[in-house]
Amino acid sequence: MKSYLMAFIVGGIICVIGQILMDKTKLTPARILVAFVTAGVFLGALNIYDFVIKYGRAGATVPLPGFGNILAKAAIKEVDAKGLIGAFTGGIKGTAGGVSAAIIFGYITALIFNPKTKD
């Protein structure tokens, strides 16, 4: 039960930060998303995001900073194993499963449901 509560709190805090940025700044949603991924990369590279994941679990890994963290960790691992080329291939290898799942599930959803334009 504690894990669910912590995931809810950590994920909620990330969402609240995004909502505040949308409401109080002139940043577009696309820039906010990029900022979240970039923050996840920096926090992951500095091993700070691991602390957030330790307590927030899915509440920290599912939002966009978690994606950035995965990119950083995978790139660092590949650089250690293969040198400079790993900086380019590591992020792709580390995130391929999640990106593939998003594409597949998005396609299945598009097949099942009939999208409509907003009026």
UniProtKB/TrEMBL annotation:
| Regions crossing the membrane | 6-22, 29-49, 94-113
Protein name, entry field: Stage V sporulation protein AE
Keywords associated with the record: Membrane, Transmembrane, Transmembrane helix
